[in-house]
Write a structure and sequence with these properties.
Layout: H1 2-8, H2 10-17, H3 28-39, H4 65-73, H5 76-85, H6 93-101, H7 105-114, H8 120-128, H9 132-141, H10 148-157, H11 160-169, H12 178-185, H13 189-198, H14 206-213, H15 217-226, H16 233-241, H17 245-254, H18 262-270, H19 276-280, H20 291-300, E1 301-304, E2 316-319
Antiparallel strand pairs: 1-2
């Protein structure tokens, strides 16, 4: 009888159940949808921002998925309810990083006031995705700082204001030469110039290779006149492969690296007759190709993506025998 009195007493029942694991009734549909997603995972049916990497979790099966997805959607009321029923071991520094990655400043503030842990990943992601307000807040209030990925990510994505902020606010934080390499690849000329004039890390020869391959003539010219790393045959090969003939001519006139024999195959593939004399100047044994040879070359050339140390370069060519 006494147990029945407890069950019918709303105050006592709420007090007892407050210490039990569980979820609120209104959250059940989200858990049901998550289970269905696990049974029939399809990246095509998911918004791009709800992929595991963008939620800062390892996989769809991660128990933090629903909470991190609510953060990404900026569903503040849902986040607050989930925080009440999530186990503490599931509320990690990745939650702060998820809010920072999506630029939700109000959630970053809430999490900070709640004492939710933070890591350098939060600043790295805020910088990479261009969220200056979040980055500034974390710089002031979070002691974990950032890694070299912050500057590299911001430079790669073209966030000049963030590159400048990191340089000024965190001068003790080293970065990598990849910052200029990736800025050159993506055509962010102002960032290339800023890094050149203000940072000591410099670039690698890959910077000019990238810029040439992706058609950024101004950057190629700047790197040639202002820096000493030079380039490799990948620069002219990539420029030919993508049809950037002005860059091919510039490299031929001002650089000595030349090209590989693949460049001639690229030219034949795309019928770039105007630059064949330039390419033959590096490989004298290669004669002008007849139309039959050109047809055969196009038929036998198979292009496939590769991942080499020159990440994000182009494609490799495999010529059948």
């Amino acid at each position: 009888m006494a147990s029945l009195q407890v069950l019918v007493n709303a105050y006592l029942l709420c007090t007892i159940t407050a210490y039990q694991d569980g979820i609120f009734v209104e959250l059940l549909p989200q858990y049901a949808a998550w289970k269905q997603l696990l049974l029939r995972p399809s990246s095509l049916s998911m918004p791009a921002t709800l992929q595991p990497a963008d939620l800062v979790i390892s996989s769809l099966a991660d128990k933090r998925y629903i909470l991190h997805a609510a953060v990404a959607r900026h569903d503040v009321s849902c986040v607050e309810r989930l925080l009440l029923c999530y186990r503490r071991d599931l509320i990690t520094s990745d939650l702060m990083a998820c809010a920072a990655r999506h630029g939700h400043f109000d959630l970053v503030q809430r999490f900070h006031l709640r004492g939710i842990p933070c890591s350098s990943k939060a600043m790295d992601l805020a910088a990479t995705y261009g969220h200056l307000q979040v980055l500034t807040f974390l710089h002031v209030h979070a002691g974990e700082g950032c890694s070299d990925r912050a500057m590299v990510g911001a430079a790669e994505a073209g966030h000049l204001a963030i590159v400048q902020f990191l340089h000024t606010a965190r001068p003790e934080q080293p970065t990598s030469f990849r910052a200029m390499d990736y800025a050159a690849r993506n055509g962010h000329f102002e960032i290339v110039k800023f890094l050149h004039y203000n940072r000591p890390e410099g670039a690698s020869a890959v910077a000019m290779d990238f810029a040439a391959s992706h058609g950024h003539l101004e950057i190629v010219q700047f790197l040639h006149t202002q820096r000493h790393e030079g380039c490799s045959t990948y620069a002219m090969d990539g420029a030919v492969r993508n049809g950037h003939l002005d860059i091919v001519r510039f490299l031929h006139a001002h650089r000595t690296e030349g090209c590989s024999k693949k460049a001639l195959l690229y030219a034949l593939q795309h019928q770039l007759h105007d630059i064949l004399p330039i390419l033959r100047s590096y490989h004298g044994l290669l004669r002008p190709a007849s139309s039959a040879v050109m047809v055969a070359a196009r038929a036998r050339a198979k292009f496939s993506r590769v991942r080499t140390r020159r990440r994000y370069f182009l494609t490799a060519i495999t010529v059948g025998r």
